[in-house]
Amino acid sequence: MKDGHTNLFDDPSTGDKVTQYADAHSTPLPAHLTEYHAHMCQSRPDAEMLSSVFQSKLHCFLARALGAKRVLEIGVYVGYSLMLWAHAVGPGGFVTGLEYDPRLAELAETAVARQGISNTEIIVGDGAETLPKLRPSAPYDIVFLDADKSGYPNYLSVILANSQPGSTGRLLRPGGLIVADNVLRAGHVADPTRTDRRISDEKVWNRNIEALRQFNDDVARETRLESVMLPLWDGVSLIRLLD
Predict the structure, then answer these.
(1) Residue of 222 and 231 predicted with greater confidence
(2) What is the pLDDT of residues 27-37, one digit of tens each?
(3) On the CB side of 156, how many CA atoms lie within 13 Å of its CA?
(4) Angle of helix 53-66 relative to helix 12-24, nearest 10 degrees?
(5) In b/e form, how buried is each residue of 113-152, taking b as 16+ CB within 10 angstroms?
(6) 3-state class (DSSP) for residue 142
(7) Which of 37, 104, 152, 192 satisfies CB 3.0 to 4.6 Å to 215 for a cystine?
């Protein structure tokens, strides 16, 4: 979600004040990120797909706390979070992004080049096809999952299958994180009585919700993983690969 609302309080006014207070007391992001985020929010009708600046602070904190140097992002969109991860890992790190839409990939690449960021790459194509073909020179420390929601269960399956203990060319290192966004989808995943939708196509929406429920169940059942689901923003799961 592009804004930072966490909806922790019954009184929306209190919730807004708490969110603003917490955001203001968290380490700020550099101007090139916040300015690009603001520009995208103003210029794109689909800007709801952006992670908020507040949530991005959490992502940056996680990467640095983990000492992450290699990040895989599944779903690049306009490149904001790609640049965020590039900032988090620093010049000595590297970020690989997978993006289905070549127009979005071009937009992201232009934004990255304009900022002089040189530690990223974008692979264009269907993530269901490009992810299994990845053979990184070293495992990723973090996988950020923010792509098509119907694909989440398959992405998880591929990550696990290609990160077997003792294997060479594995995707995610032991102790690495999967950060999965939108896992509650405006509460619909947990509350089937909600009737509002974010997209007009009911079949697509319902398919996405069911896929997210399957993904969340798969994560909870998988013995190779430990996880915590945060009921913040649109729902964020932090998932650690044990082996």
Answers:
(1) 222
(2) 999 999 999 99
(3) 29
(4) 40
(5) eebebebbebbbeebbebbbebebeebbbbbbbbbbbbbb
(6) strand
(7) 152
- As a whole number of angstroms, the distance between CA 119 and CA 83 comes to 9
Burial class (CB in 10 A: 0-12, 13-18, 19+), 191: exposed
pTM as predicted: 0.92
Measuring CA to CA, which residue among 145, 102, 151 is closest to residue 128?
151
Q: Which of 228, 242, 243 is nearest to 58 (CA)?
A: 228
Ranges assigned E (strand) in 58-214: 70-74, 94-99, 120-124, 140-145, 172-181
236 vs 135: CA distance, rounded Å:
27
pLDDT at 11 over 80: no
| Residue 20, C-beta contacts closer than 8 angstroms, at least 6 positions apart | 4
Nearest to 55 by CA among 32, 23, 20: 23
SS3 breakdown of the chain: % helix, strand, coil, rounded to 5?
45, 20, 40
What is the set of domains in the chain, with CATH numbers?
55-241 (3.40.50.150)
Query: Encoding tokens for residue 74?
Result: 């599944």
Sign of CA dihedral 217, 160, 86, 120: negative
Looking up tokens 């429920």, which residue turns up?
Answer: 213
pLDDT of 186 reads 85
